[in-house]
C-alpha cells in the first residue's frame, strides 16, 4: 500500500513539520501552511487512511495506535526533530504521536486545533453529558452508514461540526465527494472513543504546545481544549471567537502566523537549550525568570 504524502523540503531543513488533517479532508488542507514553512522545514502532510488518495488497508484502523502505525513509513522520513500540527481527528493523532509512539522523543512542539479527544470529558463529571452526546452522534452515524443512508450520515456529521455557525447548504458536488469517504467516519469515531486516560497522557507532554479553538465551534471541542489546557504543563492558547471548527482552512490567514511563530519559538528554545546544556523546558524556565 502506498500512502500519499504531500509536502516539500526546505533546502537546509534540520527539522520537520508533520501536519495531520481532519476527517473527510486530505493533506491538501495544509497547502497554505506548507507555503509558509517549506523554505525552512521539511513538510509532511499525509492523507490519513481512507481519505484523499490513500484508500488505506482492507481492514481500516479502529484505534489511534493503528492509525499512527499506518503513517509510520512516511513519518520515518522526517528530518531531525518533529513539529506536530493536527486538526480535529488529525489533532487526536498528533496527540497520540506526542504521548505514546516511537517518535514521541523527537517531538519538539505540538499544535492541536480542536483535537477530537472526547473521552477526556468522560473523566470529569460536569462534562460527561457532552461526552454522551458525542457517543449518540457516533451511534447515529454508524446506523445510517449500516443502513446505506450515507447522505443522512454526512448531514448529521456536518450539522454537529457546524456548531453555532450559520448553516449553509453544501453543494451536491461537494457532498458527493464527502460521501465517497463516509465509511471511514465510523472507524474514526471508534478510534477516538477507544482512547483512555487522556488527562494523564496530556500531563506527560514536555514540549511547547499551542491549543487553538474557535468560538463558534461545538461546545464539546471547546471543553476538550479547556481540559487539555489545564493538563498540559507548557501550553499556550489561541481562541478565535468568530471562527468555527474548520478554522485551519477557513481562517488560515488568521491562525497560520500563530502556528509558524510557535514552531519558530520552539526551534529557538531548542537551540538555546543546546547552547546552555539544558533541556528545553529548563531553558524556557530561565527565560521567564
What does this 3D model show about the protein?
There is one protein chain. With 289 residues, this protein is of the alpha/beta class. Helices cover 49% and strands 13% of the residues. The chain contains 13 helices and 7 strands. It has helices spanning 31-37, 64-75, 89-99, 119-122, 128-146, 150-162, 172-179, 183-193, 198-202, 219-231, 247-250, 252-276, 280-288, and strands at 5-6, 15-20, 42-46, 81-87, 107-113, 209-214, 235-240. The longest helix has 25 residues, at 252-276.
Key terms for this structure?
7 strands, 7-stranded mixed beta sheet, disordered C terminus, Rossmann fold, alpha/beta, 13 helices, 289 residues, disordered N terminus
What is the name of the CATH architecture?
A: 3-Layer(aba) Sandwich
The CATH C-level class name: Alpha Beta
Strand content: 5-15%
Q: Which spans have pLDDT < 50 for at least 5 consecutive residues?
A: 1-8, 280-289
Mean pLDDT: 91
User: What is the SS-derived class?
Assistant: alpha/beta
Shape field: globular
Order of helices and strands: EEHEHEHEHHHHHHEHEHHH
Helix content: 40-55%
- Main pleated sheet: 7 strands, mixed
Give me the CATH superfamily: Alpha/Beta hydrolase fold, catalytic domain
The side-by-side strand order for the widest beta sheet comes to: 1-3-2-4-5-6-7
CATH fold-level topology: Rossmann fold
Instruction: Report the radius of gyration as a whole number of Å.
Output: 18 Å
Instruction: Write down the domain tally.
Output: 1
Distance between the termini: 51 Å
Q: Can you count the beta strands?
A: 7
Amino acid at each position: 500500500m502506498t500512502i500519499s504524502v504531500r509536502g516539500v523540503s526546505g533546502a537546509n531543513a534540520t527539522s520537520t513539520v508533520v501536519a495531520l488533517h481532519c476527517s473527510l479532508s486530505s493533506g491538501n488542507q495544509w497547502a497554505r501552511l506548507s507555503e509558509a514553512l517549506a523554505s525552512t522545514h521539511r513538510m509532511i502532510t499525509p492523507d490519513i487512511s481512507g481519505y484523499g488518495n490513500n484508500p488505506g488497508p482492507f481492514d481500516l484502523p479502529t484505534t489511534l495506535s493503528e492509525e499512527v502505525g499506518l503513517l509510520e513509513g512516511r513519518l520515518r522520513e522526517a528530518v531531525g526533530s518533529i513539529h506536530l500540527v493536527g486538526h480535529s481527528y488529525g489533532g487526536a493523532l498528533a496527540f497520540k504521536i506526542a504521548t505514546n509512539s516511537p517518535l514521541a522523543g523527537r517531538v519538539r512542539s505540538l499544535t492541536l486545533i480542536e483535537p477530537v479527544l472526547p473521552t477526556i470529558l468522560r473523566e470529569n463529571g460536569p462534562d460527561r453529558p457532552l461526552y454522551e452526546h458525542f457517543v449518540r452522534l457516533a451511534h447515529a452515524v454508524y446506523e445510517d452508514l449500516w443502513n446505506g443512508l450515507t447522505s443522512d450520515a454526512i448531514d448529521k456529521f456536518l450539522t454537529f461540526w457546524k456548531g453555532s455557525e450559520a448553516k449553509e447548504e453544501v453543494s451536491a458536488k461537494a457532498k458527493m465527494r464527502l460521501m465517497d469517504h463516509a465509511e471511514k467516519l465510523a472507524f474514526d469515531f471508534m478510534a477516538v472513543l477507544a482512547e483512555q486516560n487522556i488527562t494523564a497522557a496530556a500531563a506527560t507532554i514536555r514540549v511547547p504546545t499551542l491549543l487553538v479553538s474557535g468560538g463558534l465551534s461545538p461546545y464539546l471541542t471547546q471543553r476538550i481544549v479547556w481540559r487539555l489546557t489545564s493538563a498540559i504543563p507548557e501550553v499556550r492558547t489561541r481562541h478565535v471567537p468568530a471562527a468555527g471548527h474548520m478554522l485551519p482552512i477557513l481562517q488560515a490567514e488568521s491562525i497560520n502566523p500563530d502556528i509558524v511563530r510557535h514552531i519558530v519559538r520552539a526551534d529557538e528554545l531548542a537551540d538555546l537549550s543546546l547552547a546552555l546544556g539544558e533541556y528545553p523546558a529548563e531553558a524556557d524556565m530561565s527565560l521567564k525568570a
